[in-house]
Amino acid sequence: MADKKADKKIGEVVHFFDKILVAIVKLTAPLKAGTEVKFKHGDNEFTQTIDSMEIEHKPISAAKKGDEIGVKIKQAVKEKTEVYLV
């Protein structure tokens, strides 16, 4: 029986484009495409795999701490929504 370690916060949503469902996430830890993350704001949360991400409209496969990345997400989020590794 494996213990599930506590989710690690890796960033926070600083902006959200509602028409195209893209969140701008300021990272506090590195992130690679293909990683499953959880978006959490109060009682509202959902998980999804990061299929693609961009910096200044250029596709990237990995981002480092301090980067602000754009990620396509499956539902609306608010600014200050926290992002965790799953």
List keywords for this structure.
Transl_B-barrel_sf; 86 residues; Elongation Factor Tu (Ef-tu), domain 3; two-stranded antiparallel ribbon; Translation elongation factor-like protein; mainly beta; 10 strands
Any chance you could write out the topology, listing elements then pairs?
Layout: E1 9-17, E2 22-27, E3 31-32, E4 36-41, E5 44-49, E6 53-55, E7 58-60, E8 62-63, E9 68-72, E10 82-85
Antiparallel strand pairs: 1-2, 1-10, 2-9, 3-8, 4-5, 4-10, 6-7, 6-9
Protein name: Translation elongation factor-like protein
- The termini sit apart by 18 Å
Strand content bin: over 45%
Mean pLDDT value? 93
Q: Care to count the β-strands?
A: 10
Order of helices and strands: EEEEEEEEEE
Name the strands of the widest sheet in spatial order.
Answer: 5-4-10-1-2-9-6-7
Protein name: Translation elongation factor-like protein
